[in-house]
Amino acid sequence: MTNVEPHIEPRAPVLALDLGEKTVGVAVSDDLSITIKRLDSLKRSNWKDLLRNVATLIQSFDAKTLVIGLPLSLDGVSRSAAEQVEKLAVNFARSLRVPVYLQDERLTSEEARESLQQEGYDAADIDRLIDSEAAAIILRDFLNNPNQVLLVAPESKINDT
User: Fold this and answer.
1) Which domain holds residue 99?
2) One digit per residue, pLDDT tens: the chain, 161 residues?
3) C-beta atoms surrounding 25 within 10 Å
4) Looking at the domain assignment, is residue 107 inside a domain?
5) What pTM does this model have?
6) Which DSSP string do the residues of 39-90 spell out, in sequence order?
7) What is d(CA 126, CA 128) in angstroms, rounded to the nearest whole number?
8) Rounded to whole angstroms, what are the CA distances from 118 to 14, 27, 39, 112?
């Protein structure tokens, strides 16, 4: 698990990421953290492109905080996917000039699929939107539960396995 710093109140706008293997879902809050906008997903390729794309989004929306979904298992245990996200979160914390937080993302993809179905989207649209809808849910949960988030320390030690 990454080291975390003492709680610091997140500042808005907040950019949220749902890091998938092929795509990255993205959502952003407004300046007052009242509304959340689902953005187009990013194609995931390499670290440099991902960092550049996220840095561009942070600049475009003047985001003051980055939150990344942490894929814990249903029993709350950190497995390999969560460990990979933690490593990326530390890399973001080292590379960007905004605080980086981790937010539990358990069941957000299922909630996103259900939400999009209820909104009347067809299967093709759901496949296109699901990652960013999950990012919007991660962001909602982050904003609604500020005492249950982890602030990533840039100097965290990363265990390379």
Assistant:
1) 14-151
2) 444 444 567 889 999 999 998 999 999 999 999 999 999 999 999 999 999 999 999 999 999 999 999 998 776 555 788 899 999 999 999 999 999 999 999 889 999 999 999 999 999 999 999 999 999 999 999 999 877 778 898 876 554 43
3) 29
4) yes
5) 0.88
6) EEEEEP--HHHHHHHHHHHHHHHT-SEEEEEE---TTS---HHHHHHHHHHH
7) 5
8) 26, 19, 19, 10
Residue 3 within any structural domain of the chain: no
Whether 9 maps to a domain, the answer reads no
Here the CATH number for the domain that contains residue 71 is 3.30.420.140
Q: Nearest to residue 21, comparing CAs of 92, 88, 96, 117?
A: 88
Q: CB within 8 A of 160, min separation 6: which ones?
A: none
**Quick one: tokens of 6?**
């003492």
For residue 156, what are the CA distances in angstroms to 71, 92, 93, 104, 152?
A: 19, 12, 9, 19, 8
Answer yes or no: is 64 within a domain.
Answer: yes
If one counts the domains in the chain, the total is 1
Helix, strand, or coil (residue 16): strand
